[in-house]
Amino acid sequence: MVTQVNPPPLDRTSPPQRDASALPEGVRIRVLHVVYGDPRAAAELVPLLTERQSAGLDPLPTDPAALAPALLRAHRAEIRALPDDTRLLLLLAAADQYPVATHAFLRAVAAARLDTRPLETADTAGIAHAGAGGVVFRDAWTRIAAYEAGSPADRRDVHRLLARVLRGGGETPRRSWHRGAGALGPSGRLATELGAAAGQARDTGQLTLARALTERAAGLCPDPSEQTRLLTRAATDAWHAGDADRAHRLAATATADDALTGLFALRAGNATEAFDALLAAAAQTGTDGRGNGSAPASGPAAVDAASANGGASAPDGSAATDGTAPAAHILARATEAAMYTGDLRRCREAAGVAERLGVVPPGTLGGLAAAFEGRYEDARDLLEAAAGRCGPGGDPTLLVHAGIAALLLGDHTRAATATVRAAASARARGVTATAVQAQEFRAYAEFWTGRPHAGAATATDALRQAYATGQDNGAGHLQAALAMFAAVTGDADTCRQRAAAARSYALPRGLGLPAALAQWALAFLDLADGRFAGAAVRLRALAGFGPGHGHRAIRHLATPHYVEAAVRTGDTRVARAAHADYHRWATAVRSPDDLALSARCRALLAPGAEAVEHYRTALDLHARGTRDFERARTELLFGSALRRLRRRTEARDRLAGALEAFDCFGAPHCAAQARAELRALGAPATASRGGGDDPTTRLTAQQQLIARMAADGATNREIAARLALSPRTIDHHLRGVFSRLGIRSRIELVRLFGDDGTTR
Predict the structure, then answer these.
(1) pLDDT per residue as tens digits for the range 121-176
(2) How far apart are CA 133 and CA 130, in angstroms?
(3) Model confidence at 634, in pLDDT bands (50, 70, 90)?
(4) What is the mean pLDDT of the chain?
(5) Are residues 642 and 506 in the same domain?
(6) What domain range includes position 701?
């Protein structure tokens, strides 16, 4: 007889089974980030995610017990199987390292006169071993298990012991952390001490420590309103330290104010909503009497009440040491929101708020507003003032704005300087989120200064960092930038894939900048492949797209390509009007590159022999600029025009020069155009001016990035951890690198790549 067993009722609340490969790229990278790069924990976490978490709509868990419960349970069982004295030493070491590293284990052992020989048992079990500075755990999850395996009373005891030995001058924040962790219950006095310690940590760029201290202070604070303020401050610290999931969870616990809501939306939401929230926050800051640079009383733009310096703080979490008022920093963020949407009219709104508050707004704000209104000379002066603030050690937000202003002015060398310094300053202050943002614009600068592969490598690295830190809007922008880089280097499949990803993300969120840049990339791909009608249609559509779908600045920058496409299709009426506006801007900003491109447009629009002098003018101006790729395109167009005028000798020289440059850039589709023109002349379709072949241009952007890391001495496992890939994938890529470069060892790789990431 067969007994029928009824199946258990279907649990409709349980998440469907899935693996990491099915997750969107950004969520997959964040999953690896929150589980400390451990693939076992990632495999356990993924099936536990909700549909919204899997789609990237809700934050991931941050509690270790919710991330990988089975793995943590197994590790705790290992720890509990050890002798008591071994477990005590491991608990002390874990408390010294997790969740705040305090480096006081050896001093605590000496103060308590503990015997360290029991650590040999842990070493034999493969759990941990003694190192020069203390205990080295097998992995991050073993360290967490060692801490959580201890009883609450034992944990409090080791925290108090660590607090007693932390007496150094710069150890006050960490001493306060252990005092707070050793507390039995709520304490207003300890909450105040932790808040003051968080201010000190914040002032020294230790935002992760500041977040932990502030969050602990909130847990000990008996005053509900003060607890809310502390949680909001902790959320801000977590965001800027790059811990987006924790930031969102903390903000949900508190009642996030407009500044924090706007900041979240700016980097991972609807940019129009971000602008409205940030503008409201700036207005509120001024209403509270904080527009003049005095210390605010509360909110994420505030300095902690017990902060030592008492100065104003920026919404990027760093102190405004240059005397800039908090309202001005919030307005800088509002400017970014207006720029991402492409609704530059909103810059006038922000400028009006700045005027009412009596604060000096960022120069990019006034510059964009003036440019939108056609006041190009005023725009130039305001942007020049902003771009001039790119000295070393400055505020990272203002340095990013200096880089943006320099890019708008066509000064790509100064843009590169500003963005590199912005990233360095942000890292020094612990503001990881702003460092990632600086990389977005650094990629542009590297690309336009003649290093397209370096720009693509920077953008590829920044893309992973943007995803890891929860900055999906920045990731969308970088996807569009990578689409443009792929278009220039002739990688059509990558261009279309990146452009589709950028546009599908950007359009629902009103992000006109990445949407327009992706459209430009597709148009340039058409143009470089000789599909002139398709390029003209795309660029003409770009001119008609409004905010959220297009971007005035991108449309403006794409004008030289539109003129070329329109001339090739015989439609010059609109192209002449577009060129007239472009020339007026180029004349105002006096950028050699913009003036060169304007002269090239004039040559394309001029009949027959009249074009020759315009091309010569363009090449003279290119010689004083930095956009070598566009110079090569000018040589290509000039050579083609000379061939049609039967000036064969000069045409051959110009076309050979263009071919050499395109080969150097790794732009095979553009090189094919130059070869076709040379064949039409009856000349050999090879470059004739020397220069040699740079073998590293044969690599993709991904291979360039991995090759540089390997040349710097990183192991496959280290590269895999940084890029959120498997070591096997890195090994596959390196084999491809060796094959393409014709080398056999990493030593040869070091010879090909310079220490600064450039090729030798």
Answers:
(1) 999 999 999 988 899 999 999 999 999 999 999 999 999 999 999 998 889 999 99
(2) 8
(3) very high
(4) 84
(5) yes
(6) 696-752
Q: How crowded is the C-beta side of 122, counted as CA atoms within 13 Å?
A: 28
Q: Is residue 316 part of a domain?
A: no
Of 285, 153, 305, 289, the closest CA to residue 225 belongs to: 305
Arithmetic mean of pLDDT, 229-235 = 94
Quick: pLDDT tens for 543-560: 777 777 888 888 888 999
Helix (H, G, I), strand (E, B) or coil at 620: helix
Comparing CA positions, the residue from 133, 141, 127 lying closest to residue 90 is 127
- The predicted model scores a pTM of 0.81
Q: Based on the domain organization, do 617 and 711 belong to the same domain?
A: no
Q: Which residues are paired to 135 by β-bridges?
A: 130
CA-angle at 245, arms to 239 and 248, nearest 5°? 70
Q: How far apart are CA 467 and CA 759, in angstroms?
A: 28
Higher pLDDT, 178 or 719: 178
Higher per-residue pLDDT: 35 or 556: 35
- % of the chain with per-residue pLDDT over 90: 50
In this structure, what CATH number is given to the domain that contains residue 513?
1.25.40
Lookup result for tokens 């999953």? 31
Q: Distance (Å, rounded) from C-alpha 522 to C-alpha 558?
A: 12
Q: Are 346 and 275 in contact (CB under 8 A)?
A: yes
Longest dimension (CA), the chain: 100
CB atoms within 10 A of CB 238: 29
Whether the ω angle into residue 64 lies within 30 degrees of 0, i.e. cis, is no
Return the pLDDT at 193.
96
Structure tokens at 635: 């040589």
Please report whether residue 536 resides in a domain.
yes
User: Considering the domain boundaries, does residue 638 fall inside one?
Assistant: yes
Cα separation of 746 and 724, whole Å?
22
First CA to last CA across the chain, in angstroms?
80
- Asked if pLDDT for residue 426 goes beyond 50, the answer is yes
Cα 340 from Cα 364, distance rounded (Å): 13
Q: Calculate the alpha carbon distances from 241 to 70, 205, 355 in Å.
A: 29, 9, 32
CA–CA separation, 719 vs 37, rounded Å?
12
Asked which of 27-41, 87-101, 292-306, 398-412 is least confident by mean pLDDT, the reply is 292-306
Residues 6+ apart with CB under 8 A from 715: none
Are 538 and 522 spatial neighbours (Cβ–Cβ below 8 Å)? yes
Element at 211 (helix H, strand E):
helix 207-220
For position 191, what pLDDT does the model report?
A: 96
Structure tokens at 172: 């006050």
Residue 423 in contact with residue 465, Cβ under 8 Å? no
CATH code of the domain covering residue 728: 1.10.10.10
State residue 18's pLDDT score.
59
Q: With contact defined as beta carbons under 8 Å apart, do 329 and 314 qualify? A: yes
pLDDT tens-digit readout, 94-128 = 999 999 999 999 999 999 999 999 999 999 999 99
Q: What is the dihedral of CA 621, 626, 627, 633, to 10 degrees?
A: 50
| Whether 688 and 704 share a structural domain | no
Identify whether 491 is part of a domain.
no
Residue in this structure with the two tokens 């020339």, named with its chain if needed: 583
- Show which of 642, 662, 693 is a domain's final residue: 693
Residue positions counted in the chain: 760
> Which amino acid belongs to residue 179?
R
Q: Which of 285, 301, 292 is nearest to 239 (CA)?
A: 301
User: Is pLDDT of 310 > 80?
Assistant: no
